[in-house]
Amino acid sequence: MDLINSADDRNARLDTKGMAESAERQGQGQYFAGLMIDLMPEWLKKDIRENKPSLCDWDAGLGNGADLLCDALGTPGAKMGAAGTAGQRDPDTQLPTQSLAAPENRWDVIFSSNILARYPDPWTELEGLARQATDALVVLVPFKEYERATGHNYTFSSTNIPARVGAFQLIYARSRHTSIVPGTRWLGRQILLVFASRALIERAQVSLADLCFDDADAAFEERLASLTARNQDLVAEKAKLAAQRWEAERWYQDSERFVRELLGSRSWKISAPFRSVVIAARKGRDMLRTLRSEQSAVPEPVVDLDSFLRSHSRILIVNSDVQFDPAGHGSSIALAAAAADAGHGVVFVGWQSAEDEAFTDRSALVRPNLFQISRHDLKELVSAVKRVRPSSTTFLVTVASTEVAQSLLALEAAGVRVIYHVLDDWAEANKVGQAPWYEEALEKHLIVNANKVTVVTSELRDRLKRPDEVHVVGNGYTPVNFALPDEGRTYKQTAKVGCFGPIGEGLFDWQLVFALAANCPQLSIEIVSEVPSGCVAEQAGHYPNLVLLGSREARECSEIAREWRAGLIPYRTSRLGAAADPLQVYAYLDLGLRVVSSGLPQLGPYPNTQDVEGERAFIAAVQDLTRQPSEWVPVKDFLQAATWASRLERILQ
């Protein structure tokens, strides 16, 4: 079953030849006919049953639902006229070319279902209908549709629905929120409007008790908000309990394995004190049993995609150009981890060049609330989302790959919100050997069709040439326990500076580092990243004060950097660098380090950060900091807004 205004619905509507025969459109017509009957006032139903007026379904919006409407109104077998049918549509707008089939046609009651929203000025169209009606206009339209569906050009609200249309008075208005109704065909609110003639009002003896002018869902919205908040609390509690159980399971397994090894060892036989470990293992077993009894509502660790989707109400899909590594660097990994910590069910779509290429932890739970699949599994993921229908599903795209572009229509049909988060100028990265997957046409297609586009820098936004439609949300960081961001780092006696994190090819300026080492022999320079090969590594060996420590985990990088006087980001001046938002700058500031960078003018406004141009300026800036540090500017507010959790919240808004 597809919702109205889905991709499948629009495709069917554009095929005007086949629309009348479309079983799906007929199902939608029956749904809206049933909704119209539920919302219709009893006095109008009674009048139609008793007086058998002529009925018209304008634009055939109800399809075969018109028969359902006639049966419900006690006029089975009555013929309901249809005006503005598929054969009389404008080929470009797909709207009726005339209000009614012929000016001489008149009807007692005209029904209109979910067509007026397609007109920029629906009231002019309704005025035309009023001239063809005798007793009433009964209109069903989307209500308070502030984020309009594709093809809708007007938003009906309490402030723009008139009290009169032609000679007809608005005497009844009733709305309903259909989003959470089982079997719904509309994600939002619908409102039924009844405009009646004076003759009908007098004939039906309408009194004050028969009128209804509700903004009907105020109580519903309040209840929904309460239930939503409660659901989020329960999801967070469930995630917390699942994490506790996960840790208890691991602790118990480790303890049990250790005990088995110990019992089989010679030392057990000769060393009685070790027997206390048995007591500890029993305590661990008892603790695990207690957790199991207390967490009976927490499911067993899931082993398949469908089970994972069913166990979470909020799903966030994140794709990446790497596979998930809990200790790894990178924005996509950090955003996915932050979402998992916040209670989202995260499906991480890891990179796999070819389907037969090695892929660690494919289709597996790699940490609490995070399930990893390969990019080659994306089609199956879309099918699973359609089957399970989670309450909320968002796809955070960080890699504009072929399979993502090909899945956009299917994702929309499955009710998935797509956000394209641009982490770099991928066109420039591709020129220097990075982002081999990049294709300009695919990225443009994604930018046009995504529900939302975010970028990490203003420069990137300007390059996309859509400044009003693109939101800037920078990169972030994971706070460390020993940071002193309000005071700055107390300098050690040793004169050390350094840099850590991935060194992108085409960005990192090794010649600038070599010049700093040559001109500042008293300064120890530590590079905590992958060790370069070839001539770069050979040249680095000529400088005894330049220390290459190799790649380390994020926690170890922070421990090493505690001894530094400044954090360095030596980049070449380039279009790629000018659009980047390096992760290191946030980590350095969190450690209480001052920052010296080059080739990154966008970092100029950041607190305690100097971006300079040229070799001499870079060396002078580092020397000045090591001799006499500048006054430290508090960065607490800056860093609070830059945590990965804060960044994720802004992206998903």
Structure in words:
The structure is a single chain. The chain has 653 residues and is of the alpha/beta class. The protein has 4 domains: 7-216, Rossmann fold; 236-294; 305-472, 3-Layer(aba) Sandwich (Rossmann fold); 496-650, 3-Layer(aba) Sandwich (Rossmann fold). The chain is 39% helix and 17% strand. It is built from 26 helices and 22 strands. The strands form 3 sheets. Strands 1, 2, 3, 4, 5, 6, 7 and 8 form an 8-stranded mixed beta sheet that branches. An 8-stranded mixed beta sheet has the order 11-12-10-9-13-14-15-16, with helices on both faces. Strands 19-18-17-20-21-22 form a 6-stranded parallel beta sheet, with helices on both faces. Mean pLDDT is 80; it is low at 1-22, 84-103, 296-300 and 481-485.
Outline:
This protein is an alpha/beta fold and 653 residues long. It contains 26 helices and 22 strands.
Chain oligomer state: single chain
Q: pLDDT under 50 segments (min length 5)?
A: 1-22, 84-103, 296-300, 481-485
Number of domains: 4
Number of strands: 22
N-C termini distance: 28 Å
Tell me, briefly, the overall form.
Answer: elongated
Helix content: 25-40%
CATH superfamily of the largest domain: Vaccinia Virus protein VP39
Number of helices: 26
User: What average pLDDT do the residues reach?
Assistant: 80
